[in-house]
Amino acid sequence: MKSIIIGQYIPGKGMFYKLDPRTKIVAVLFIMISVFLLQTIFQLLIALSVAIILLLIGRISLLKVLKGLKPIMILLIFTFIFQIILNREGTPLISHPMYFTIFTLIFLILAFIIWRVLAKLLRFRFTLFFLFAGSVYVILRFVDFGDALIEPFNFAIYQSGLEMSIFVVIRLLIIITLSTVLTLTTKPTDLTQGIEKLLHPLKRIGFDSESFALIISISLRYIPTIFDEANKIMLAQASRGADFSEGKLKDKLKQVISLLVPMFIIAFMRSEELANAMESRNFVPGEKRTRINELNFNYKDVLATVFSILVLAGSIVLRVI
Predict the structure, then answer these.
(1) Each residue of 50-85: pLDDT tens digit?
(2) Handedness of CA 176, 182, 183, 184 (dihedral sign)
(3) CA dihedral sign of residues 183, 187, 191, 197
(4) Counting Cβ atoms within 10 Å, is residue 315 exposed (0-12), middle (13-18) or buried (19+)?
(5) 165 & 308 share domain
(6) Residue span of the structural domain in which 245 resides
(7) Any bridge partners for residue 97, and if so which?
């Protein structure tokens, strides 16, 4: 949980830190729209390369961004697998029968036991999971002797499914990276002010832009806070003998409940503390307030805005052609 960086602000002196928050919000939105307009893997790879170059130019730690992606790797993996399984169009790249016999079952049980034992002894659990998944594939593919428990079934990977899986995963990586960069380089107060200023024209039709901006800012700010509190609770319970990674399903559910109850209590306590702090500072929603640091555009903001517009225009052209 310590690797969660979405919603965190990390001080720095790079190029992105000096941009107006309105510029960053608009640029990120434009580039996200551009990503959804791209149609090929090659185009997305170019977009991903540009995003990495911008991170390096902005002096944002690429390693830190990659660590922030670690908690969602399971989501990306399952997205990749489901796309391969469900998309069965185009030319089959791999197509062969899979077997499930009595010996297949025995080998699968042995592979599972070995995986669980090694997972307790070694640190590289993620790598072990991939090795276990690979061993399951090999067993189902080649262990064809013995009495069949079910009829052999066909396993196939199609070209369209593989391409779509890669396409979706790269797109998600770019979107999540852009969102992470926005929160990493923008203070919560600046982000609130930027959203408020951008939505200010909607006040004419009765939209409360200030309250909306405040809700978004508080939500983003409390993501890392809640995860930090959850980590503290898990460490405290681990010191009392709790183990969230081992045990039966029933025991794991009890441990999760023991984690959720204090989490809800802490969340409500934090909310009450924030409400009291805002009230003690005479915060009134909708009232006009002055600020120490007012937002202002400079030439860097103009260049960043022009760049994002050009990226969007280029994506539209590629989409139309």
Answers:
(1) 888 878 877 777 777 777 677 677 778 888 888 887
(2) positive
(3) negative
(4) buried
(5) yes
(6) 16-99+152-320
(7) 154
